[in-house]
């Protein structure tokens, strides 16, 4: 189930935070609750992706994007993600989440988020390829930034994100076209 109450709490909690520059970092605090865990008594990897919404949406609001989305009747979508999980997050453990837009190209924005444990260690890190969508499809980031009153040039794309973009460009789509037809799974 989507954590709607937690999202409302984050939006309310950060309602008076100062506006952020388009590449500013939003910092928030979250807890791993019992319904966030998996069989191994740690934050579920899929739930981690859902919890990242709790940082990304307030970031978008603080940067002024939500106001523009509503005015233009645009939406948001994710077009890809790359995640690293490094340290377990246990039930009732608090994490600090850091969220920021790193750069953009002709079609997509690249957003990085991380969860940090109380001892200073990074538990996990994600980079998203996201897009603003309108009736005609993807809205170019330059148009979105102009609507936000921020016709900035994109910051240099970090090498590691550029490498992910390049690797993803050669990934086959649709996937698994080379799978053997008629193969039955082993029981």
Automatic annotation (TrEMBL):
CDD domains noted in UniProt: 4HBT
Domain of life: Bacteria
Gene3D superfamilies, A to Z: Hotdog Thioesterase
Identification of the protein by name: Acyl-CoA thioesterase
Entries under InterPro entries matching the protein: HotDog_dom_sf (IPR029069), THEM6_lcsJ_thioesterase (IPR051490)
Organism: Roseovarius spongiae
């Amino acid at each position: 189930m989507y954590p709607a109450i937690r999202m409302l709490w984050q939006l309310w909690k950060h309602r008076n935070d100062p506006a952020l520059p388009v590449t500013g970092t939003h910092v928030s605090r979250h807890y791993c609750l019992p319904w966030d865990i998996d069989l191994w008594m740690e934050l579920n990897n899929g739930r981690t992706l859902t919890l990242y919404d709790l940082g990304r949406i307030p970031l978008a609001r603080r940067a002024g994007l939500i106001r523009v989305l509503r005015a233009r009747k645009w939406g948001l979508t994710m077009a890809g993600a790359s995640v690293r999980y490094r340290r377990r997050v246990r039930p009732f453990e608090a994490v600090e989440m850091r969220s920021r837009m790193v750069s953009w190209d002709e079609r997509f924005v690249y957003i990085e988020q991380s969860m940090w444990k109380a001892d200073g260690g990074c538990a996990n890190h994600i980079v998203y390829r996201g897009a603003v969508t309108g009736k005609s499809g993807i809205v170019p980031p330059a148009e979105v930034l102009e609507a936000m009153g921020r016709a900035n040039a994109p910051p240099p794309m970090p090498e590691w994100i550029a490498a992910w973009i390049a690797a993803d460009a050669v990934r086959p789509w649709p996937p698994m076209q080379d799978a053997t037809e008629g193969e039955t799974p082993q029981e």
